[in-house]
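Structure ticket #2291
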Amino acid sequence: MPRGYFITFEGLDGSGKTTQLRRLAAWLTSSGHTVVTLRNPGSTHLGERIRSILLDSRSESALGPITPLAEMALMFADRAQSIAEIIEPALAAGSIVLCDRFTDSSEAYQGAGRQLGSQRILAMHAAVCNNLQPDLTLLLLPPLKASLSRARRRNNSSSQTEGTDENRFERESDDFYARIHAGYEQIAAREPNRVCSIVHDEADNSINAIELRIRALVSARLPTLCAP
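Resolution: structure written out below.
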């Protein structure tokens, strides 16, 4: 059986990547493909436990400060588990795997945001993830301020209505997020064959318009996806 395809979605929180992943999954499924979706961190039993530590703003009140290196290590523990438990079996079965965040997020958030550096992240990826690379990465890059504002509103609303709290990163400074944004831009410049940047401003940021752009990119970069 031919190996499947591995597509990742990247971007700041509030960029719309999760919505677009769901829409792409629905489109591919309606075309007859077998699609597996997951998120980093999360999607495995271990991953969801790690997610609750890393994203919950109350974690540090209970556990004490999480150091940048510990944060990085937990991210890769989650990733290693999802590769073994979900990603590799799905690819071996010929499925299309859509993942909400992967190692690019660690390079942007921990490497650039936490200032650990790209080389440390890439070395961890090679060692822990056997250097598994996506076939295609869709990087959503709306304006920084708009993305961050949307993420903070969404997480505050979820905290109030659902009792969930994933605000730990959103409490960071705007400088932290500026470094992340620049980190993503550097990744895209370094790997143009893998990373497709979807840059949009307030004038062209409708969900439907971005969905059509993503479909076109997927069709152009991986045309066999359109013919199951």
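Closing remark: The longest helix spans residues 68-92.
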